[in-house]
Amino acid sequence: MMPFLAMGMMIVMNGCGNGDTAEQGARTIRFWHFWSEPGQKAALQELVSEFERTNNVKVELTELSWNDGKVKLQAAFNSGAPPDVIELGSDWVAQFSSSGVLLALPGDAAALSRFVPYAIAPAMWQGRTYAYPWTLDTRVIYANDQLLSASGWKGPITTMDDLVAAAERVNASGHNGWGANGADAHRLYKKILPFMWTFGGDVLDEKGRPVLNSQENMKALTTYAQLARAGFVETQRQLDAAFIQGKIALWNSGSWLTKKINANTTLKATPMLMPGLNGAPGISFAGGEYLAVSASTKNSQKARDLVLFLTKGSTAVKFCTKVPEAGFPAEKGSYADSTLVADPIKAVFAKQLEHARMTPVHPRWLDLEAVLEDAVVRVLLGEATPEEALGTAQQEALQIVGG
Predict the structure, then answer these.
(1) What is the full DSSP assignment across 335-401?
(2) For strand 85-89 and strand 328-329, is the pairing parallel, antiparallel, or unpaired?
(3) Is residue 304 a contact partner of residue 378, using CB atoms and an 8 Å limit?
(4) CA atoms within 13 Å, Cβ hemisphere of 333
(5) What are the sequence ranges of the domains in the chain?
(6) d(C-alpha 362, C-alpha 368), whole Å
(7) What percent of the chain has pLDDT over 90?
(8) Segment 199-232, tens digit of pLDDT
(9) How far apart are CA 280 and CA 83, in angstroms?
(10) Can you give the pLDDT at residue 97?
(11) Buried b (16+ CB within 10 A) or exposed e, 320-336
(12) CA-to-CA distance for 364 and 370, rounded, in angstroms?
């Protein structure tokens, strides 16, 4: 049994076939999700109501928070009373699917080809599908046009060298050139991974073995530390606020800032794609929301139908249009829908999705994530060089993976 279920209780799996005998009488589907703000809830309820009307079923919605939602899901599974349909973050799916608590859904990798290619791997475990991708989002570089112009910087920022040079130029002019995430659990890794991937590095190789101490990763961490010295280090929340206040020239963040940027008439901000190397585009971080079905559901068919309905491109477009912070549909033909990219900032995000990646699929990803984040923090604090920090991280990762 995987670590996330080790809460002192055994889960007795009934098998996915046993629930079907009770399906005729089971008319309620319990769906736990993370869209808790009023506008988000209203948008989701509207779609769910449409599903209820056409499927003669009741969907009971329960909101979770990102602060403790995973703990509540773990407790529900361990108590034998999980919801029928569950929303999971892309980096959680492997931990749940590898633990045997999710229902295997119809389809293999080929059947999932309607989705963005890099969104498929997290949906699968050992060749079987345990979740469907629902929404995707990524990160771009936001540039404060006034601070860049005041520093004397001219021209585009398309390479890593450009990015460092621009940040240092702004810093030399007396302003913060870059905002660097420091100790910020579950967020810092999303900022360092794009640098690692762009430089050709990774956390695990194609065989699942740790490669944290590669030369490519050392170059990436060196660059990130160099950028940090051209600005200041804080949490994502504080850096988001500082950018909106006009205190940072360059900042890597998500589409949730769009509303605030558009509302601030004194801020002239331009979204840019992740800078690349040697003519190749930069690779950004992509996260996603996935929908899965509990293996112990008493209404497996309707639960699967709800997952299929919500992950359908046209349905996801409606949701993402009303909830901009949801990002984009995971279905290939829908993420660049005209209703979503009418906003020029969102259009850049849609373009960045073409050059983005998700975290490696591993049931102990959260442990690997913590090791990576600790290495970055040690370098930012001056406690270790990139070589030393990543060397230690490599050994810790080997212990986690068992290599």
Answers:
(1) TT-TTTSSSHHHHHHHHHGGGEE-----TTHHHHHHHHHHHHHHHHTTSS-HHHHHHHHHHHHHHHH
(2) unpaired
(3) no
(4) 6
(5) 3-137+287-357, 140-273+364-401
(6) 9
(7) 84
(8) 999 999 999 999 999 999 999 999 999 999 999 9
(9) 44
(10) 94
(11) beebbbbbbbbbeebbb
(12) 10
The set of residues, in sequence order, having a beta carbon less than 8 Å from that of 19 and lying 6+ positions away, is 26, 296, 297, 298, 299, 300
Annotate 122-159 with three-state secondary structure: HHEECCEECCEEEEEEECEEEEEHHHHHHHCCCCCCCE
Closest CA to 197 of 286, 71, 305, 124: 286
- Give CA–CA dist 190/210, Å, rounded: 18
Cβ atoms within 10 Å, residue 36: 13
* Adjacent-strand bridge partners of 329: 135
CATH fold group of domain 140-273+364-401: D-Maltodextrin-Binding Protein; domain 2 (3.40.190)
The answer regarding whether domain 3-137+287-357 maps to CATH 3.40.190.10 reads yes
- State the CB neighbour count (10 A cutoff) for residue 247: 17
Report phi then psi at 391, rounded to 5: -65, -45
Cβ-contact 224, 218 below 8 angstroms: no
